[in-house]
Here is the input.
Amino acid sequence: MKTYSATPKDIEHRWYVVDASGMVLGRLATEVAKILRGKHKPVFTPHMDTGDFVIVINAAKVKVTGRKAEQKQYFRHTGYMGHELYTPFAKMLATHPERIIEKAVHGMLPKNALGRGKLRTKLRVYAGAEHPHTAQQPTPLTFPSLEAK
Here is the structure.
């Protein structure tokens, strides 16, 4: 038995579109991260970019469970001492709903150059239902077990 390792000629990248309306944020992010990494493919190789492109639409309609809608905060630092900024979930959802999904998926990818590259180039998030990637003919993905009840 030999361990299979994918080469660039073995890898085929596909496009998928995911509708986030009514889905739970964390569970959606895990599925998107799995597709970005390529773990759904039999040719998955950890050190190669075997993942696919993912378009997430309706990011403004994503749900969270429990009291996260009131309690969750997003942290960022300005670079100056003591200038920490915390943005509540409700404000982030109203102003930049794309960043909510991007940050959730970012937390589930490896913290290295391969993970950053996948987030930057393979993930597209849009607040509404329209996206400019129709030429790529994305395949719709549904996760019926992940929809909020």
Summary: Helices lie at 25-37, 68-71, 89-95, 97-106, 113-122. Strands lie at 15-19, 53-57, 73-77, 84-88, 123-125, 139-141.
